[in-house]
Amino acid sequence: MEKYKNLKSVYYENISNNSMDKYKETVNSRKNNELSIYTGLIMSPFKREFRTKEQFEIFYLPSVQIYRLQEDIDSLSKTIEKMMSQLPQVAQTQLFFNNLIDEVQSTNDIEGVRSSREEISLTIDKLMKNNKNGRFSGLVKLYLKFQENKYNTIHEVKDFRDIWNELVSDEIEKADDMPDGKLFRKEGEVINSGERIIHRGDASEDEIISHLSSLVTEMNDENIPSLPKCFVAHYYYEYIHPFYDGNGRTGRFIACSYLSRKLDMMSAINFSSAIVQNKDLYYKAFTDMSNPYNQGEATSFIISMMRLLKKGQYSIIEKLDDGIKKMMIASKLTDNDELSDLAQNVLYIFCQKEIFGNYVGAITDVDMVGITEVSRYLLNKALDELEEKGFIKLISGNPKVHGLTDDIKGKLFED
């Protein structure tokens, strides 16, 4: 299938031939195509570190590539759901938290925010046990809602500020980076890469509110197909840049939240991780979209974002495939006549943790009581049995934590 060329590429192809006729024809044919979908979102391109005076309404063509990518993404999402259903509940939970940690770490990496997976894991553990909040608790709390099928909806401009408040407000260190308008920033904002300005957000809060109002309309327009609508909204939110800090994290969360309603949860929460693995594709798509010669056409941008999402889905399927194979080994290890039924069950849970929860906090003995739904007395007997036979060892005494021995780990992960 021939690659779809954005209007910027068509322009530069024709300027090298000293002829603009083909470019003008292509612009007219795309803009006036009866299939073209206009979003109602007005943007000014970016050139030589400034927005130009030109204004274009963002539109796209529902091309064959978009249609095929939509089919592939839907099919992969169903595959992921099917593979997830093959896993026991503990494995599913561990995998979700592991991917959540990757997602939060990835979105911090993109923004240059220092964090570690261990730190994020500790925050999750505190939140799950209703203890005091840890660093990035706002970010984690919102993503945790996906597990309960709770999503942040956007029906008015204020909703963007509410999400920002929950997501990143506690992590803003400089007072100058807090919103100084009624809801958003009131001064202009530039985004730099080194010494070069690569984008300018809206110049005033009035302009921000006006553009966000249009974005709310676009996001709730049932006439625009879901994934193109999601990715156009993602671009436009970053184009507006309504805050001094936290725009990237907020924008990606909004996209993830929307994707969680349309696809399986794992595909959605892997979005930032996929971006980290494909940064060049991601940033080039934004740069091309903002080019004056692209004239507001979002077709190639949508294709790039869908390809990125698809890459992330393949990554999840690869993890699941590897995990399912290791679960078969775990089944053989735990199917041991020398062990009591409860000991076999406990050992199987430890294997699930080891396979799918390498970044997730340890399962304490107290946690294990809740998972197995047996008394502490019976659990202790099973743990002693496993420890005596060399399957597990004591890792921590306060709180008490057990884990697989190195010998069992070796058998579990042998090639």
Automatic annotation (TrEMBL):
It comes from the Bacteria. Gene3D superfamilies: Fido-like domain. Residues 155-304 form the Fido domain. Pfam families: Fic. This is Fic family protein. The lineage of its organism: Bacteria, Bacillati, Bacillota, Bacilli, Lactobacillales.
